[in-house]
Amino acid sequence: MQDIDLLARSIELCRRCHTICGRVLKHSLQKGGDYLQEARIQALLDCIDTCSYCLDLMSRQSPLHMRACDLCTEACTRCAASCEQLGTDSLLQECARACRDCASVCQQAGSYVA
Q: Residue 86 gets which letter from DSSP?
């Protein structure tokens, strides 16, 4: 994949991950119970924030995006693992997939020099 294609794909998947994590956060607040585990809510918030930050830096091709991508990879990986713990909820499973996709592409994008 060419660097510019990789950057575009990273932006797309970060945006998707950010959106689905926001939906899951709202869903979790509505469901209550196990959905409100502190670690899960923290993972969702961290993922939302790091995706947003990474999106901003990649969109303007900041040379700092590499560091943001590393952080985003870690946050997305943690969020995916947390969402997978409630295995029967299709929205959380969709979120876990989006987080894993984002983590994978951000790991690659972290080495792209803008």
A: S
pLDDT tens digits for 28-83?
A: 999 999 999 999 999 999 999 999 999 999 999 898 988 999 999 999 999 999 99
Q: Count up the domains in the chain and report the number.
A: 1
What's the CA gap between 52 and 58, in Å, rounded?
10
- Domain span at 95: 3-109
| Orientation angle between helical segments 65-84 and 38-59, nearest 10 degrees | 150
Nearest of 77, 75, 69, 73 to residue 113 by alpha carbon: 69
Among candidates 33, 40, 26, which has minimal Cα distance to 96?
40
Angle between helical axes of 65-84 and 3-31 (0-180°, round to 10) = 40
Question: Is residue 114 included in any domain, yes or no?
Answer: no
Nearest CA to 69 among 105, 18, 25, 21?
105
